[in-house]
Amino acid sequence: MRGKGLIAYGAENGSSVSGRQHFPAIVSNPLDVVGAGDSLFASTSVSLCSVANIMEASAIGTCMASLAVRNVGNILINKNMLQHQLHALFK
User: Fold this and answer.
1) What is the pTM of this model?
2) Which of 78, 23, 81 is nearest to 56 (CA)?
3) pLDDT at site 90
4) Helix or strand (DSSP H, E) at 50
């Protein structure tokens, strides 16, 4: 369901992070959706393999997908772009 965002389910042992969380699509009028899902799943997977819990990884994935759909064609998304997006959304 393109444009609806992501729903994450999780339960972390010994943590207050649990339950269901909806991460809505950040960009309402994407220019090009090709690669958005790949960006979301790749960055969520890498985040989970690092030290992020499922909710943190989902937030990162949602931000990466939003950056991917803002331009036509594939673009390189760097750390500074992601940090800026995360800061703007979750300050």
Assistant:
1) 0.81
2) 23
3) 75
4) none
